[in-house]
Each structure stands twice: as C-alpha cells, then as structure tokens.
Amino acid sequence: MTIETLDPDFYYRVISAKDARFDGRFFTCVTSTGIYCRPICPARTPKRENCRFVASAAAAEALGFRSCLRCRPETAPGTPAWAGTQASVARALRLIEDSALDEDGIEALAARVGLGARQLRRLFLAHVGATPQTFAANRRLLTAKQLITETNMSFADIAFAAGYQSLRRFNDAVRASYGVAPTALRRDKSAELASRPGSAITLRLGYRPPFDWERLLSYLSIRAIPGIEEIGATEYRRSFRLADASGVVTAVPSAKPNALDIHIMGEGRLPVRQIATRIRRIFDLDADPLAIAACLRDDALLGPRLAQAVGMRVPGAFDGFELGVRAILGQQVSVKGATTLTGRVVARTGEPLSRGDGKLTHYFPTPEALARADLSGLGLTGGRIATLKAFAKAVARGDVSFDPAQTLDEKIAELCAVPGIGEWTAHYIALRAIGEPDAFPASDLGLRKAAGNISTRALMDMAEGWRPWRGYAALLLWMVPVIETQALAAD
User: Fold this and answer.
1) What is the C-alpha to C-alpha distance for residues 316 and 79, in angstroms, rounded to an integer?
2) Strand locations in 57-192, DSSP E?
3) How many Å apart are CA 116 and CA 69, to the nearest integer?
4) Is residue 80 reached through a cis peptide bond, with omega within 30 degrees of 0 on the bond before it?
5) Among 2, 154, 236, 366, which is 20 to 30 Å from 292 by CA?
6) What's the whole-model pTM score?
7) Measured between alpha carbons, how far is 4 from 1 in angstroms, rounded to an integer?
8) Which are the catalytic amino acids?
C-alpha cells in the first residue's frame, strides 16, 4: 500500500499523537518551514494545511525539503521494505542499504533484481516516492549526518563510511542539503564528542515498538558462537572483520525510547554504515509490528501466541556465511550440540583476535579458510565435513551468495544445489541470514508438532494464509509459549 492510498487525515492524527509505532513508515513535509519530520517530532504539530505526507525521507528530499534537526530523521527506523511494497522494490531497497549504488549504476542494480532500469525507476516512484538514485543519496546523507553529530570521526572517514566516493562529494552533499559545511553541523556537539572515552564510535538505531528484546536476546544467547559472540542479560557483543577493518561491536538498549545503541571499537577504516546495517538485521530493527500483527493476529493458531509475544522479531545474522555454517552444524543435533561444534570449528579455523576481549577470542573463518581446513577430530561426521567444505567452496566461488536480489524460490534452489543442504536448511538460512520474511521450513518437526502434529503438506497449506510473514509465524510456533519446545527445532 503506497502512502497516497490512505487518508491524509489519518496521518495527521498520527503526528498529533506522536505515535512511535509509525516512526519511519512515513514523513511529514512542512511547507511553512521547508523541513521534513518523523511522526514523533517533539516540535509543535504544524497546521494541517501546511503538512504533506510522503513515504520516505528520500521522497521528502526529492521535493526539496531538508531534514529536521530536532527529530533527526537519520535516527528513524529504516524503511519497512516488506510492508506492502512490490517485491522487486523491496529487494532493491535491501541492496541499496548494502551500498549497491555507491559505486555501481542504476542499470547494474536493476539487472540484479531482474528488471530494466526504467521499470525500476517507475516502481520506486510508485512505492517509495523517489528514484533509486535519490533514495541512495538520501541514505548516504542521513548516515553522514548521524556520524557528524554523534561521533568524533574525521570527515574523511565519515565520507568513506557513508558511501561517498570522495571528500569533495561529501562536503558538497552536506552543503546542498543543510546550507552549511559539515563543521557547522558538528560545532554544537564538540564538547560532548571530546568527552567520549577511547576511540569508540557510538550510534543510535531506532525501531518501531513494540520490541520483545528479552525474548530475542534469549534466543540468540543459547546459540551464541563461542569465541565470536558474547551475550549478557541486556547486551550483545561480537567480533567482526569486514574488508581491512576489524574489531568488536556491542549493542545495548538505549536510554532513549525505541532505540538500541551500538558501540564500535576497531582498527582500520571502519565501514560504519555496513556494521550498523548488519546489527539492524540481527535484531530485525526494520520490522513493522503493525503489518505483521494485522496478518497473523486473527489466526487461531498464531493469534494467542502473538498476544504473548508482542513485538516478536526474527533473529537475524551479522554474516550470512557464519549463519550458514551454524545451520549446517545444527542438522540433526541439539541446539547445545550445534553450539559446541561451531565453537570447535572457530577455534580450529578462525583467526585469533590480536588482543582478546573477554570471551571474544576469534574472528569467524573466511569461506576460503574453512574450505581448506582440516576438520577431523572435531566430532563431525564425514558427511557433515563434506557439506561444510562444499558450502564454503560455493560461497568462495560466488555460486552461493547472501544477496537479497533473488526471489525466495531462487535462493532456495541456489542453496539446495550444495550437496548436503536440503530445503529445511535452505529456508532457515534464507530466514535468518538473508532476512527473507516469508521463508518457512515446513518440514521442521517442531513446527509440525506445534501446529497439531500435522504433515508437512498440511502445514504448508495452512501457512498460505500467513504470507508474506511465514517466517514470523515459524518463530511464534518455535518460541511461544516457551523458547525451547524441541531440541531439534530452529537450529
């Protein structure tokens, strides 16, 4: 559903109430001031006749409005890519968030989602309110604005992290949008930034409430990879390596409402935008609880579970290859067993951190390293070793990717082409590593038991009514009312 199909008076009631559930779903352009705001902007609600509502921050920028300095659209939840948006546009949005247009052109992006460039532009204008290039430019600008005001990074590093190809382009973009140089935007924050300890970079990532943080953290905790992840009562920590940068990132609930704070400590030129995008996926921060609940709440099987798990999210992954290895090691073993085996693989094949950080001791092995590693003596069967190596080689060759450009069916076929990976594992990887909300491992024993001990075929038929949120339905069946109903489920 595009924003033009709803009554503008509805949107005006939302901004009058400052309803956080709609944060990021639309923006208000204020014609009397020339700025655009989030629905939760603390400023006085503008007059109705001065409001124009658009589907995205990019659409507001395209109309010549500049972002509000009070509600700061750069910290809003991301575009709800699956909330009624045409599927190919949703995939393109994900690719743009992964920096697809920072170097390549619109033709390359369109080809990746199987469309012509003109058709992709037309669909973007209909569903997002802006062209792909405008959307990408807006994402770069908002990332840069957040890094300017929330960190003490150099402007050269900010330009790189935000996706600009040069410092000059970064300066020109900031001046064009805000009318001042980047130094002017940072000036008021200089004392606060100077007081921050060490070289940590801290960013705030917004989400739409409700958010069941405790349940999500509990799910991740019992699956935390030894040496790679450390999960406490209220925080998530992990090591990372991206290109020539490496370090540790921590996520904790923010003191501000409806947000997480992430703290990044690392070496090299940190791709902050990519790190933030991956953290958003781990915690499914761009989920739209209203859209999901509207689809599932009236279902006799899912409705009561949803009522107990308001704000359910699909636990994602920081790295697709890492999650794929974890899924393969979880075939036909318990959650605890899979965690133990993954820890052994990491200790054998992962590169140690230069300086240990608590329980974080290694970086996850690269596909190339795992493909050539000796995995004997770790408690793995010969078949499991063969599957791991085949998977690692396929990823290293590019035969398997975690690119969201493909349809779900295409991705399942790609994964199932790897010897030893069946549909269950493929759907599980698609759900958690790629963020495909409609992935559904219907053959899972836990799902079939939760649905009343029915057959795979019967469960697939039942799940037709849960589209496009079958992945959320799977999590509800796995996790509610208790997190571990089956030793084999969801791992």
Assistant:
1) 17
2) 66-67
3) 37
4) no
5) 236
6) 0.87
7) 8
8) 37, 444
SS3 376: coil
Which structure tokens are listed for 409? 């069916």
Average predicted confidence (pLDDT) for the chain = 89
| Sole residue written with tokens 């905790």 | 221
Residue 387's pLDDT band (boundaries 50, 70, 90)?
A: very high
**pLDDT tops 90 at residue 191:** no
* Interatomic CA distance for residues 337 and 333, integer angstroms: 6
pLDDT digits (tens, 9 = 90+) for 274-286: 999 999 999 999 8
Would you identify the CATH topology of the domain 198-286+316-396?
TATA-Binding Protein (3.30.310)
- CB burial readout 81-93, b (16+ within 10 A) else e: bbbebeebbbbbb
* Residue 276 phi, psi (nearest 5): -60, -40
Phi-psi category of residue 254: left, alpha or beta, with phi > 0 → left and psi -120 to 50 → alpha: beta
Could you tell me the CA-to-CA distances from 381 to 70, 337, 376, 378, 489 in Å, in that order? 57, 13, 9, 9, 20
Q: How do the domains of the chain map onto residue ranges? A: 58-196, 198-286+316-396
Burial class of 355 by CB neighbour count within 10 A (0 to 12, 13 to 18, 19+)? exposed
**Which of 282, 196, 200, 208 has its CA nearest to residue 238?**
282
Q: Which two tokens stand for residue 50?
A: 């001065």
- 227: Cβ contacts below 8 Å, ≥ 6 apart: 239, 343, 346, 347, 350, 359, 360, 361, 362
Higher pLDDT, 1 or 343: 343
What does the alpha-carbon distance between residue 201 and residue 199 come to, in Å, rounded to a whole number? Answer: 6
Instruction: Tell me the H-state helices in 360-451.
Output: 367-372, 382-397, 408-416, 423-432, 445-450
Of the candidates 432, 433, 454, 430, the residue with the CA atom closest to the CA atom of residue 444? 454
pLDDT band at 404 (very low <50, low <70, confident <90, very high): confident
Tokens linked to 305: 């579970």
H or E stretch including 248?
strand 245-253
User: Is residue 290 a contact partner of residue 82, using CB atoms and an 8 Å limit?
Assistant: no
| Residue linked to tokens 């037309």 | 122
Q: pLDDT (tens digit, 9 = 90+) per residue, 77-116?
A: 876 544 445 678 888 888 888 888 888 899 999 999 888 9
DSSP per-residue letters across 72-88: -GGGSPPP-TTSS--HH
Neighbouring residues of 213: CB distance < 8 A, sequence distance ≥ 6: 253
Contact assessment for residue 312 and residue 475, using Cβ atoms and an 8 Å cutoff: yes
What's the CATH superfamily of 58-196? Homeodomain-like (1.10.10.60)
**Residue 480: its pLDDT value, please?**
84
Classify the phi-psi angles of 37: left when phi > 0, otherwise alpha if psi is within -120 to 50, otherwise beta: beta
